Amino acid sequence: MTTTLIIVRYPKYLSFFGILSMALFRLPLSLNKKIGFYKLMGCGKNGTFDKSPDWRQWALLAVGKEMQVDRSTQKNIQLPSFINAYWKFFHCEQWAIFLEPIEGHGTWDHQNCFGMLPKQSDYDGRIAILTRATIRFNRLKNFWKHVEGVANQMSRSNGFITSIGIGEIPLIKQATFSIWKNKSDMKAFAYQIKAHQEVIQKTRKENWYSEEMFVRFKIIDSTGTIRGIDPLKR
Fold first, then answer.
1. What is the mean pLDDT of residues 162-183?
2. In CATH, what number does 2-233 get?
3. CA nearest to 131, candidates 194, 208, 52, 65
4. Which of 18, 38, 128, 133 is 20 to 30 A from 114 in CA distance terms?
5. What is the number of other CB atoms lying within 10 angstroms of the CB of residue 73?
6. What band does 18 get if pLDDT is binned at 50, 70 and 90?
7. Residue 127 — left, alpha, or beta (φ > 0 → left; ψ -120 to 50 → alpha)?
8. pLDDT of 181 strictly over 70
9. Which helix (H) or strand (E) holds 146?
10. What are the Cα distances from residue 14, in Å, to 39, 60, 80, 86, 87?
11. What average pLDDT score do residues 211-217 get?
12. How many Cβ atoms from other residues are within 10 Å of residue 108's Cβ?
């Protein structure tokens, strides 16, 4: 099973067409038999959970058994031709990363969208992490009060490469996609940084989320750039 995350950035003054794409892309994605699960999402401004959306930058996550990696073309996850043509017409910058889910837990819209995964594996190479949650309305203040501190700690942690904030619904349905040099460095941040540990404990004690998911991926390949660079080569 291959997972592909595509980050698309629209030219200045064309952000409206990014908003419009969130509605237009649903039908062709739903009709594509090679895509078993997909999500169309916005992006935060600062690389993680963010109250302020980046109206020029949007995300598409797609999961399918038959998707193939092809570095020679941007049509590398067998997307509907309409979507590729749309991005090309508006001269969008694209960055795609191809992933293999290897471990994790939780559900997304009550689905095991990445298949049945073990909670742990022996893999310790370069790794990508998807952390997503649906935040309870009565816990929004608690959640957002702690976001900035944890994000700052993550960006300064050993082994951290990059992160992107993505989400289906502003403030409520949020996710962070981060990339690390290896699992050991990621675990050092997750379990040894005091601020992050305190937040984890509060989420459980105060029941912040109505649904959550945590998945780790092996990185297969990437193509394209975002803001002129391939984030994997920072």
1. 89
2. 3.30.70.100
3. 208
4. 18
5. 8
6. very high
7. beta
8. yes
9. helix 140-155
10. 22, 18, 22, 12, 11
11. 94
12. 22
- Please check the confidence at residue 102 and state whether its pLDDT lies above 50: yes
pTM, to two decimals: 0.90
Residue type, 65: K
Please name the residue that has the structure tokens 């951290």: 160
Residue 151 contacts residue 139 (beta carbons within 8 Å): no
Q: Rounded to an integer, what distance in angstroms lies between the CA atom of residue 62 and that of residue 75?
A: 13
> How sure is the predictor about 55, in pLDDT bands with cuts at 50, 70 and 90?
very high
Determine contact, residues 163/212, Cβ cutoff 8 Å. Answer: no
> What integer best gives the mean pLDDT of the chain?
86
CB atoms within 10 A of CB 216: 22
| Residue 101 Cα distances to 79, 90, 116, 131, angstroms | 20, 32, 10, 13
Question: What is residue 93's three-state secondary structure?
Answer: strand
Express the helix, strand and coil content of the chain in percent, nearest 5 each.
30, 40, 30
Question: Could you please report the per-residue DSSP string of 180-217?
Answer: ES-HHHHHHHHHH-HHHHHHHHHHHHHT-EEEEEEEEE
Q: CB of 146 within 8 A of CB of 199?
A: yes
Written as six digits, the tokens of 233 are 């080569």
Ramachandran assignment for 104, one of left (phi > 0), alpha (psi -120 to 50 degrees), beta (any other): left
